[in-house]
Write a structure and sequence with these properties.
By secondary structure, the protein is of the alpha+beta class. It has helices spanning 2-22, 50-63, 83-97, 138-145, 172-180, 195-208, 229-244, 248-256, 265-277, 292-295, 326-346, 389-402, 458-463, 467-477; strands spanning 36-37, 72-78, 104-110, 119-122, 126-129, 132-135, 151-154, 184-190, 215-220, 225-227, 282-290, 301-311, 366-372, 375-382, 418-425, 429-430, 443-448, 451-455, 491-495, 497-501. The chain has three domains: 36-312, LigB-like (Protocatechuate 4,5-dioxygenase, Chain B), CATH 3.40.830.10; 326-425, Glycoprotein, Type 4 Pilin, CATH 3.30.700; 429-500, Dna Ligase, domain 1. Belongs to the MEMO1 family.
């Protein structure tokens, strides 16, 4: 019996040595991983064979040529569709990460199959891929889940069952294994994609990682789904323009309103909030494409982008100040007046001719202010860039005349006395230093949970307010106490505006 046991042990030892030489490196801790999330889409979204998978990624990485990164990559975005479709774009994100060392990666993803109303931080021990197991940083996950009532330790959204083969975290892991080697993962799936959930997660991560330079936050997301090729490009570039401008508040609003599209919109917003609070000052879109570029079928495509959020010693150049020509101002003022008069006189929305101006066809937030003999008669606007500018002015002019709750609707007899002023807003950017707020240049938007209020740049000038009074009065406009601007839960967004009326448009 002793001889038999000795022979068996020798055979097992030989097999273990062989496996150690030929098998992919397993990313495991010293403790045994008992609750391991098995691959759900290996063999479907990407090859199940490790050699085939590795070769596919190597080929795609070789074709991705992102520019050298000037600074520290704090967060990134990568798509999560099948590798033949989104892989050529995802490779740009991962090629940019080559040579960077991270011991922990927080992957934030959406839920495609299971509905739930919280952010699910994975409670298991590891995620498995054909390249081996990626251990979960359980201590970090447990601490994170306690940071907000919007987050829970859970397996919701992480299932690998036939009925719920969630792929949004899983498909990112082989790429990370390929370019980073060994790391721990914190898998997060967002069931609620509201701004509040994104903010809670982004702020919590920034608090936990304040002095950490060894963690990457990765948002897993595709962009628009199943539009014709040209329409998809138009929708997706609206999202990417806001991403580059750091206007994540408008992004979140437009995702919720389904004006823009990204299945992982909330993860992107959370990653941006985290990166901003960690000092990121550059947002770079490395690559954009859609499934039509791979298949040749342009009838129904899915959009993909590769993006980085970087903390650099050389901040991105500020965009040139937004401006409008005298002709564009005159066109917008005519749209505003015609919109109000048409609705009141003919009881139907005004249909302006499509603008030939490229600027007026781009999305901007705008307010229309109506006065009658110098007195305010209505003021309503879109704070987010939802529609082409000339259509935003059409809508907000009518709303200012008929829907401002402070005033009765404008009557036909008042039309000749109305004067029009238009304020076109820049993208919104969170204020990180109160001293940077300049009265007369900046407008403010404040948000704290359900409370929200906005004051245009011309208001504090008209009222002769200093900076602190401006902050206090914006709080009051939002329905909060005057000192709400000191509350860490209040987000303050600044913007500039091009303001013009019928007297100063020429």
């Amino acid at each position: 019996m002793r001889i038999a046991r000795s022979s068996t042990m020798a055979w097992l030892t030989a097999q273990l040595i062989t496996l150690a030489i030929t098998a992919p490196v397993l990313h495991v801790r010293s403790a045994v991983a008992e609750n391991v999330r098995q691959p759900a889409v290996a063999g479907a979204f990407y090859p199940a064979d490790p050699k085939e998978l590795s070769k596919m990624m190597d080929d795609m990485l070789a074709k991705a040529t992102p520019p050298a990164v000037d600074g520290e990559i704090l967060a990134a975005v990568a798509p999560h569709a099948g590798y033949p479709y989104s892989g050529p774009v995802a490779a740009w994100t991962y090629a940019a990460l080559k040579g960077h060392k991270y011991s922990r990666v927080v992957v934030i993803a959406p839920s495609h199959y299971v509905g739930f109303s919280f952010t699910s931080v994975y409670a298991g021990d590891a995620y498995s891929t054909p390249l081996g197991q990626v251990p979960v940083d359980k201590e970090f996950a447990h601490r994170l889940a306690k940071m907000s009532s919007t987050m829970q330790l859970s397996e919701k959204g992480h299932q690998s069952t036939q009925d719920a083969p969630e792929h949004s975290v899983e498909v990112e892991l082989p790429w990370l294994q390929k370019v980073l080697g060994n790391f721990d993962v914190v898998p997060i799936v967002m069931g609620d994609q509201s701004y509040e959930s994104s903010r809670a997660l982004g702020v919590a991560l920034a608090k936990m990682l304040r002095n950490d330079h060894d963690t990457l936050v990765l948002a897993s997301s595709d962009l628009s789904h199943y539009h014709p090729y040209d329409e998809a490009e138009t929708i997706d570039h609206k999202t990417l323009h806001a991403l580059e401008a750091w206007d994540y508040f408008s992004m979140s609003r437009n995702f919720e309103a389904r004006v823009w599209e990204a299945c992982g919109g909330a993860p992107i917003v959370a990653a941006m909030i985290y990166a901003e609070r960690m000092g990121a000052n550059k947002a770079e879109v490395l690559r954009y494409a859609n499934s039509g570029d791979v298949t040749g079928d342009h009838s129904r495509v899915v959009g993909y982008s590769a993006d980085l959020f970087i903390k650099s010693a050389h901040a991105a150049d500020a965009p040139p100040p937004f401006s409008l020509t005298d002709q564009e101002k005159a066109e917008l003022l005519a749209v505003a007046r015609n919109s109000v008069e048409h609705m009141i006189q003919k009881k139907e929305p005004y249909a302006p001719a499509p603008s030939t101006s490229e600027t007026l066809n781009r999305e901007y937030g705008a307010f229309v202010t109506l006065t009658e003999r110098g007195a305010l008669r209505g003021c309503i606007g879109y704070t987010s860039a939802m529609k082409p500018l000339y259509m935003t002015v059409r809508d907000t002019a009518t709303l200012a005349a008929l829907r401002d709750p402070r005033f009765p609707p404008v009557s036909a007899s008042e039309l000749p006395q109305l004067a029009y002023e238009i304020s076109v807003l820049s993208p919104l950017r969170r204020v990180t230093d109160f001293e940077q707020i300049k009265v007369g240049r900046d407008g403010l938007l404040m948000k704290n949970g359900e409370f929200e209020g906005l004051l245009l740049p011309q208001v504090p000038v008209e009222q002769k307010w200093d900076r602190q009074t401006f902050l206090e009065q914006t709080c009051v406009k939002a329905g909060m106490t005057p000192n709400c601007w000191k509350d860490e839960n209040t987000d303050i967004f600044g913007f500039t505006a091009v303001v013009f009326n019928e007297k100063n448009s020429e």
